[in-house]
Amino acid sequence: MGVRFRSEWPYFRYMLGPVVRLGGAKHSSPWNWKRGWWRHRPRFFLGDAMPTMPKRLRPAGTRSQAQARKEADDRRGSAASRGYTSRWSKAAATFRRGHPLCEYCSLEDRVEPSTLVDHLYPHRTYDGVFWRVEWWVASCASCHSGMKQAVEAAGKAAIDALARRLGREPLT
Fold first, then answer.
1. Which among 62, 143, 148, 172 is placed 20 to 30 Å from 114, CA to CA?
2. How many helices (H) and strands (E) does the chain have?
């Protein structure tokens, strides 16, 4: 396209100064549409530099991932509607001050700071455990989202076994 040297046409050259050399012809301005500066712009400007994934085929009437995620969030409710209010924030901060290390990590002889307070028995499944401090566990985020979720998925017997390992009486 008339570019002899790489330094002659950096990708931002079309935005520079009043006189720009484009392929051997002098134009009074890079914004001179009559002389066609857009023909000499970099190829990525034309939209063909990187291939893109084709749109996912989704039969009519099915939900997209974004729609499914939004519906799940709507069913779940807000944090405040699930009980996580300012009262909970204060109580959890006080509990973490008394329990600065992750109790799940201490079972495996690791030392990690606790970043959140976990309910040993999930309060959405077992009524009346949300405010019972004896079922609160100081936890790091990785234990809460990894090991603890697997234990909860395994059922009440697995949670009872974890309670015994933590030195607590299982829920009756």
1. 172
2. 6, 4
